[in-house]
């Protein structure tokens, strides 16, 4: 049976073309994508495109953008077998993480992709990325989607969306997943690592839509000044703080730091301990330096990416007004974001 796929174009480099006279990059009318990528016709899929208005450079992505994007997927969920979201690379991992938590009971693929070079450039990576993402979004076995989760396809590799992070600004392999293996790799054939892929959701799609943006992050460094920490912890509306610590979750043994954090957690602020290391996990009891954070009431970000931690925390706080409920949601494994 012919597969139906929806491409949602949100902005970013992939949808741009060089003006031959001025050589400046400008977005082209995405409804005419087949003119740029005639290979699309050869798939034999029924491909529908929808553009988000206005298009955004992904540096401008915000909660409202996630709501609009998830709203399109929700509204058109039953019409299509899979969804491909074209997105700027800069914040793609944040959007993929947010969608993975918002779209509950997902049973169809939502594959994000973009490119480092515009689709209208001669050496573009956009065509490969788009064609691969479409093939993955359409892939089924026994009439069921092979990848029923939110994923990022980039440079021949399919990564779980909430495990991915942008690591290169000017290279084709722009994304890495340090703590989880790829879901698929595209060579001559696309090889799916089925044991790494999440099971299909059971029941109807449900979309969580409440975010609370009263969160902040604080990256520790040797010599950090008390007033810098006070300024962040003292934000009157603060409900969540992501502390980026050293190694396996360690902080300097400064009594004022622990006092400030203890005060924050006792006032109901959720303090998440996440490591500055790209790979591996926070284990707070490994050293005294981490144990102190545990005693100050911090909770572990485990091996989640920063992108997953921040979006999950915002959703936890939005969906659950009581700190205890938000904390238990945050500590659960919701969409394969932690080991
Ligand atoms: N600044 C662009 C964006 O993220 C870069 C890209 O498209 O990759 O929207």
TrEMBL record:
<dbReference type="InterPro" id="IPR037152">
    <property type="entry name" value="L-asparaginase_N_sf"/>
</dbReference>
<feature type="active site" description="O-isoaspartyl threonine intermediate">
    <location>
        <position position="13"/>
    </location>
</feature>
<feature type="binding site">
    <location>
        <position position="58"/>
    </location>
    <ligand>
        <name>substrate</name>
    </ligand>
</feature>
<dbReference type="InterPro" id="IPR027475">
    <property type="entry name" value="Asparaginase/glutaminase_AS2"/>
</dbReference>
<dbReference type="Pfam" id="PF17763">
    <property type="entry name" value="Asparaginase_C"/>
</dbReference>
<dbReference type="InterPro" id="IPR006033">
    <property type="entry name" value="AsnA_fam"/>
</dbReference>
<dbReference type="InterPro" id="IPR020827">
    <property type="entry name" value="Asparaginase/glutaminase_AS1"/>
</dbReference>
<feature type="domain" description="L-asparaginase N-terminal">
    <location>
        <begin position="5"/>
        <end position="197"/>
    </location>
</feature>
<dbReference type="InterPro" id="IPR040919">
    <property type="entry name" value="Asparaginase_C"/>
</dbReference>
<dbReference type="InterPro" id="IPR027474">
    <property type="entry name" value="L-asparaginase_N"/>
</dbReference>
<dbReference type="InterPro" id="IPR027473">
    <property type="entry name" value="L-asparaginase_C"/>
</dbReference>
<keyword id="KW-0378">Hydrolase</keyword>
<feature type="active site">
    <location>
        <position position="13"/>
    </location>
</feature>
<dbReference type="InterPro" id="IPR006034">
    <property type="entry name" value="Asparaginase/glutaminase-like"/>
</dbReference>
<dbReference type="Pfam" id="PF00710">
    <property type="entry name" value="Asparaginase"/>
</dbReference>
<comment type="similarity">
    <text>Belongs to the asparaginase 1 family.</text>
</comment>
<protein>
    <recommendedName>
        <fullName>asparaginase</fullName>
        <ecNumber>3.5.1.1</ecNumber>
    </recommendedName>
</protein>
<feature type="active site">
    <location>
        <position position="89"/>
    </location>
</feature>
<feature type="domain" description="Asparaginase/glutaminase C-terminal">
    <location>
        <begin position="214"/>
        <end position="329"/>
    </location>
</feature>
<feature type="binding site">
    <location>
        <begin position="89"/>
        <end position="90"/>
    </location>
    <ligand>
        <name>substrate</name>
    </ligand>
</feature>
<dbReference type="InterPro" id="IPR036152">
    <property type="entry name" value="Asp/glu_Ase-like_sf"/>
</dbReference>
<dbReference type="GO" id="GO:0006520">
    <property type="term" value="P:amino acid metabolic process"/>
</dbReference>
<dbReference type="InterPro" id="IPR041725">
    <property type="entry name" value="L-asparaginase_I"/>
</dbReference>
<dbReference type="GO" id="GO:0004067">
    <property type="term" value="F:asparaginase activity"/>
</dbReference>
């Amino acid at each position: 049976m012919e597969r139906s796929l929806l491409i949602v174009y949100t902005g970013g480099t992939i949808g741009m073309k060089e003006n031959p006279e001025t050589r400046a990059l400008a977005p082209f009318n995405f409804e005419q994508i087949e003119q740029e990528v005639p290979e699309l016709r050869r798939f034999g899929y029924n491909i529908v495109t929808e553009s988000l208005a206005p298009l955004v450079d992904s540096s401008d992505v915000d909660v409202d953008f996630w709501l609009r994007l998830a709203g399109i997927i929700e509204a058109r969920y039953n019409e299509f077998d899979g969804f491909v979201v074209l997105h700027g690379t800069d914040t793609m991992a944040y959007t993929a993480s947010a969608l993975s938590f918002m779209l509950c009971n997902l049973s169809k693929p939502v594959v994000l992709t973009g490119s480092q070079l515009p689709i209208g450039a001669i050496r573009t990576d956009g065509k490969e990325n788009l064609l691969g993402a479409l093939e993955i979004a359409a892939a089924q076995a026994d009439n069921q989607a092979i990848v029923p989760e939110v994923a990022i396809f980039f440079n021949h590799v399919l990564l779980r969306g909430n495990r991915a992070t942008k690591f290169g600004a000017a290279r084709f392999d722009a994304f890495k997943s340090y703590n989880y293996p790829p879901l698929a790799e595209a060579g001559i054939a696309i090889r799916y690592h089925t044991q790494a892929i999440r099971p299909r959701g059971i029941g109807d799609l449900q979309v969580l839509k409440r975010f609370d943006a009263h969160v902040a992050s604080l990256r520790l460094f040797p010599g950090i000044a008390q007033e810098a920490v006070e300024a962040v912890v003292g934000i009157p509306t603060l409900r969540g703080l992501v502390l980026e610590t050293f190694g396996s979750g360690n902080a300097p043994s400064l009594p004022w730091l622990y006092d400030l954090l203890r005060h924050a957690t006792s006032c109901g602020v959720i303090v998440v301990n996440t490591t500055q290391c790209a790979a591996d996990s926070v284990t707070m009891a490994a050293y005294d330096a981490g144990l102190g954070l545990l005693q100050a009431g911090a909770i572990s970000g485990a091996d989640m990416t920063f992108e997953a931690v921040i979006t999950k925390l915002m959703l936890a706080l939005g969906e659950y007004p009581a700190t205890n409920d938000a904390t238990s949601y945050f500590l659960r494994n919701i969409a394969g974001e932690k080991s």
